[in-house]
Every structure is written in C-alpha cells, then in structure tokens.
Amino acid sequence: MSRFFLIVTSIILLSFYSCKKALYSVFPTIEQLKLSKQTLQSNNPKDSLLISFYVYDGDADLGVDRNSGSYDIYMDESRTIQNLRFYFPEINGAIPGAGKGIEGLCNVYITGKQLKIDSTFAPKSADTLYLKVYVVDKAGHKSNTLFTNPIYLK
Fold this sequence. Notes:
Layout: H1 2-18, E1 29-35, E2 39-40, E3 48-57, E4 73-77, E5 83-86, E6 102-111, E7 127-129, E8 131-135, E9 146-147, E10 151-153
Parallel strand pairs: 2-10
Antiparallel strand pairs: 1-3, 3-6, 4-5, 4-8, 7-10, 8-9
C-alpha cells in the first residue's frame, strides 16, 4: 500500500511540476526605458533619438491589427501637443515557446520632425518635454507607464 501511495504521489507531483505557467502576466509590462540622447533639433528629419525599453507579455499577443485603428506603442508627450503612435513589426509564423510568454527589446526612433517646439502662445527657440510610454496588446491590456527623462528641443 505504501508503495502504491508513493507512486501516486510521485505522479501527482510530476504533473504539477510539468504544468509550467506563463513567465509573465497577460498584461504587458515595460521596463528600463532609455534615451540615446536628451537634445533633439526640432523640425529636423535628419536628427533623431532612440527610445529603448524591454517589453514582456505572458500570453504573447503583442501586435494589433493595423486596420483596427489601435496601435501597439503609445508615447504621449507632456505638453499634449503631439502624441506619437507606433506599431510593433509584424512577426510571421509561430513564436517558439510563446505559450510561456514573450519578451524583447523595443527600439523606437523619433526624429526632430516628429517633435516640434511649441510656439502656440509665444515664440520660442527651445522647449522641454517628457514622453509617457506604454504598450497595448491585442486583447486591449494596457501595460504599466514609464516616463522618459527630459527631452530638450532646440
């Protein structure tokens, strides 16, 4: 009887051990937001900065349908003048191990043409802003929000 109990207990423990859960939440998470530089020449398409962050998603459903009117990456600026929206690149085919979630480094280039000095109320030769960054997956789950360091426009 004790041998049978030991075998049944071992099988139950092995079945629990083999049921691996997703490594991450079904809500996307972003972290380690970095800027390649902090000064950008406003309205200059040749000047750019790189915004990098890591993204994690437990159910691997990043990448919305481009015809849905939704985006993947949102960057809302502190001056509420311009809000930048981006898509993740399309991933063709199955992602190995996606049942456990996915993670990756996301790089977004912003040009001086995309961020302009706000001279709505008074002429300025420089400006400062912050970007609020978050991602949204196919299910509409919004990630946590991170803020960039100040970005100086000249």
